[in-house]
Write a structure and sequence with these properties.
The chain is of the alpha+beta class and 235 residues long. It is built from 5 helices and 4 strands, in the order ααββαααββ. It has a 4-stranded antiparallel sheet with strand order 1-2-4-3, covered by helices on one side. A hairpin with a 2-residue loop joins β1 and β2.
Amino acid sequence: MNTSASFQGGSSPFEFFNFDFTTPVSEKVSGPEYRPLDFPQPTQDADLLRQLSFIPGLKEILMIRQVHALEHATVWVLSESKSAYPAKGEPTNVQLDNELLGGLSTEQGFYLYGEVNISDLRRAVILARHRLTSGEWNLAVHPRCGTNLSVAMLLTAGLVVGVHLLLPFRPIEQLIGLGLAATTAAELAPDLGSMAQRYLTTAIPFNLTIENITCRRDVWGREAHFVKVGWQEEG
């Protein structure tokens, strides 16, 4: 997730991997003993980098995907810590989203926007990485991620073009087709956006080490906490 609801964009040449904060995940998976059947191997990114090290920019792409997942998970953890206790009788397995928090991922780390104590942020980042690498892959996906918006735009554009070409070039048919295309895109985009995040724009941060957290300004001059990370070959 790399932008909040109000922050979007990025300075990284690979910013398409850090589109920001997935449909709310209502079922939280917990416990280090749980791992999905398709959960990645801890060494898969390191192995891929060793085998294809001749590809320019591959390490940065792999790194920013892992940073992106860590960013999303950190926002989820911080949202949990700031949430009020649920009312009696309400389910507690629903992920809560603090919309005042946002992020921006780069290949060196991520910016965290919003009011947050640096000590709380440090604990949240460590816990987020632990939970992701222990099997809670759902934390890597966030509903306010720009990936969802990008998928929605591409899907809408594709359906509109398809409808325009398939239907007769008469105003009524074209208007009906455009309406159907927009409605279909709106229905499909959230799920497709979540899939795009899970399999394309994020990766479990097995190879990331948390180096330091500082207060700094991004390229637009906005104040934020910057979580700097490093790369280690083995997770």
